[in-house]
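Reopening this ticket.

The earlier resolution said the output was attached, but the attachment link was broken on my side. Pasting everything inline this time so it's all in one place.
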Amino acid sequence: MLAKLFSYTLIGIDAAPVEVEVDVSPASMPKTVLVGLAEVAVKESTHRVERALVNSGYLRPADRVVINLAPADLKKDAGGFDLPIALGILAGSGQIALDRPGDFAVVGELALTGETRPIKGVLSMVLRAAAEGRDGVVVPRANAAEAAVVEGIDVYPVGSLAEAVGFLSGQLDMDPEAVDLDEIFSKCSHMDEDFVDVKGQDYAKRALLIAASGNHNCLMIGPPGSGKTLLAKRLPTILPPLTPAESLETTRIYSSMGRLAPGQALMAVRPFCTPHHSVSDAGLVGGGNPPQPGQISMSHKGVLFLDEMPEFNRKTLEVLRQPLEEGRVTISRAMNSATFPADFILVAAMNPCPCGYRSDPRRSCSCSPPQVEKYLSRISGPLLDRIDLHVEVPAVPFTQLAEMPPGATSAQIREQVLEARARQARRFAGEGTLVNGRMAPRQLRKHCKLKPEAMSILKAAMEELGLSARAHDKVLRVSRTIADLESSEDIQPQHIAEAVGYRSLDRSVWM
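Inline output:
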């Protein structure tokens, strides 16, 4: 007999449909053949499935079993085909009848005992099933929470092969899994960090307020212990809360990599990723065969923090150029390619010199000018051009640490960010852009018109600092955000002057 079930495989973070065909026919000796460009993990599933069948109380067919995973030219990886293969063998050998009305997809890995185990990428698979109009998806119980957040499709969690058989044969009634998204966000959106913990550093706080308001990239320069990491970790606390659509985008990246905590349904807070400076190109931007997301995609809709940026391999840093411009990254291989979302705020930190104390009044710097120049040259000019804000973070004096009253909380700063973002949303209505930091050149000409006085300040800065055309556009974007924070319809001269002030590494004092 021939049985057919529908399942899915992952290609990057996207799900592709797979038909699982199982043919059981008489033969002199039992043999199981798996075809359909299956990788090693899928080929090994036949042994797991056979023992799961026997240990669940079913018979292993003493016949020839041919399992075909279609389409034949699509590579299939991971263990998510165990459950549909086991059900196909039982149906093909006549041990069960799949009588449940409706069009269902089945995914899941099996233990030798017949229990189900969680798999990666369930969220993408259920999203694809919903887009195809299927009636429901049968998933392992451990994946039920993340699968059930998808609207328009029923998700049925099963804890074992026997439970899946009972449901699909119509012998067991089961209610679809349900989750309360409002409850998830209310419970899981709390963050422990708060800007009230940061003493002093008003200039850096102002820069991060601008970065959060307009989605601008930021580089902080200061001696060790001045609070650069402390500030960076608190940037997500002032960003707008994740919308349900943004949460789905981010969650499916983590789901495809198996990074969701057990029982976690959604990412309720913006991600904050801090790769070590020894990270490889593939670890940062993504890679492998098939391609997998890297740290920049895991930072999607959140913050990517590169501490001690000059210590990163220069070649590795250069791969950030395309994602910073386009908000996505494409990994190409000989057989296939994959595009991953990578819309993040880059926050980097560095010392002003190799020893770190060039700008610290309490410590003397032992670095020569050539050493400083070599240290700063580890970050290329084109990459610096793509960073909107260069912020000096000086050492905090003792009086501020001991006596200074608490500053504004993250909640208070976030209110300013939300007001600025609301102005941008009204401005860009219908244009596809949401924030100033992502304005296209055409939008710059439309929304960043300067009056003569402001134009003269920008012209002087261009000539004195030798700013590139890209840096010119960055200054305009930042000045537009500063104007939004002050509820100004026009970009004033002081807004341009402040934006130019955030180009520290373009000034000769750093060379």
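Reporter confirms the inline version is readable. Residues 213 and 417 are 5 Å apart (CA to CA). DSSP finds 22 helices and 18 strands in the chain.
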